[in-house]
Design goal:
There is one protein chain. By secondary structure, the chain is of the alpha/beta class. The chain folds into 2 domains: 328 residues, ANL, N-terminal domain (Rossmann fold, 3-Layer(aba) Sandwich), CATH 3.40.50; 116 residues, GMP Synthetase, Chain A, domain 3 (2-Layer Sandwich), CATH 3.30.300.30. It contains 13 helices and 21 strands. The protein has a 9-stranded mixed sheet, with helices on both faces. A 4-stranded antiparallel sheet has the order 10-11-12-15. Helix 5 packs across helix 6 and helix 10 packs across helix 13. It is globular, with a radius of gyration of 23 Å. The termini are far apart. Bound molecules: 5'-O-[hydroxy(phenylacetyl)phosphoryl]adenosine. 5'-O-[hydroxy(phenylacetyl)phosphoryl]adenosine (DLL) binds next to helix 6, strand 7, strand 8 and strand 12. Pathway: Aromatic compound metabolism; phenylacetate degradation.
Length: 447
Amino acid sequence: MVFNPAIEQLPLPELRKLQNARLKHQVAYVYARVPFYRQKLDALGIHPSSFKGLEDLPKLGFTKKTDFRDNYPFGLFAVPETEVARLHCSSGTTGKATVVGYTAEDLGVFAEVVARSLAAAGCRPGMKLQNAYGYGLFTGGLGIHYGAEKLGLTVIPVSGGGTDRQLQLLQDFRPEILCATPSYAQVLAEEIQRRGIAHEAINLQYAALGAEPWTETIRQQVESGLGVQATNIYGLSEIMGPGVSQEDVNERGTGSYIWEDHFYPEVVDKDTGESVAEGELGVLVFTTLTKKAMPILRYWTNDITNIYYDKAGSRTHVKMGPIRGRSDDMLIIRGVNFFHTQVEDLLSGLAQVSPYYLVTVSRRGSMDEVEVHVEVSQELMRELGLSTVTEETIARHECLQTLRDALAKKIKDNIGLSMQVILLGFGELPRSEGGKLNRIKDLRNLA
Ligand code: DLL
């Protein structure tokens, strides 16, 4: 369902006109209200009166995460604190949190883009949505909540974690929609199978998954485990929260629509900062076009993806491909660039392993060593009569040695790097406890 056809299907020339007008206004607005931006634009010799709109956008430089830290907590706000209706923080794990603020009007836009997103994900007014994103400073819980209400859904605000209760509510309240991180949806799917809960006992039809990178492998697992059609929802606190972009349920696998009447996207080369051609991979950069409390010009998201128009799509807005990783977690190992999601793609469809994995990088002498920890699938463990997998069990079962060697070869052939494959028993790798799950550990700087 298209929630707001007048905007979501606005012909491109008109969309550009709208963006241009909004951008000029936004630049003048921050110049007048945010000292950080006024100084920055002055230093660049740019004045709002001569700023020509989208064509001049690349001249503005970038806003980076460090700019948020340097202006902690409220230095980037464009309105007096009394006009800020809500605060959130981004989920950074290092240093000070990034604080973001919203006026009442911003919260209206937030609800609108999430309503559009949920409609694209398959939701229709009258359905029930179980919201397993964390409520609190994280934008996921409340962001989805108010968008779902705006669309006319019944919200079950369960928040993240508490798997027993999640499963109980899925059976008792029978929601049609689940919102969760993909890694937590995996946990729910796995638990449903482990506890032998019949598909008919739950009523889920759709899942909107996001807040961390995920791949087609996870999609397949969640779709079959929960009996849903799963779509991607993307967003980030600095720009708004969830609902910056969303995949349409009938266009799965072809990218997520960016609501570009509010968030203007660019993709730039991670080294030069120059725009890349349509469809090419690079760093995603966003400019807010309508934000009041905390407008941001050209935010360097660090997320690596591509953007492109899809003429066959149901909406006119630009699409983005899946996030391949963050430029800060792109690993450069012995000169080869790689993202952990590439490992996930290789594990896809292999019946002998579970979809869980963990990549660790460490340094031995001057060499980077990569280990890929992979779980043997439940079925194979059962077949072999195993309760754990150790070096000793591997030595006893030739099929496990073959599996390990085949995986290492597949990785070497496809990624071009030798990695040591460590087989573990099913269930030994960490699962999501309701939030984001880290699938990579870089131990190189800890030594
Ligand atoms: O994660 C907002 C959100 C909540 C999105 C619920 C979707 C659903 P932050 O905590 O600020 O905000 O983290 C933003 O998470 O820059 C990406 O690196 C990553 N991310 C978010 N959505 C996706 C996604 C929320 N669909 C950071 N795929 C972003 C891949 C995602 N990565």
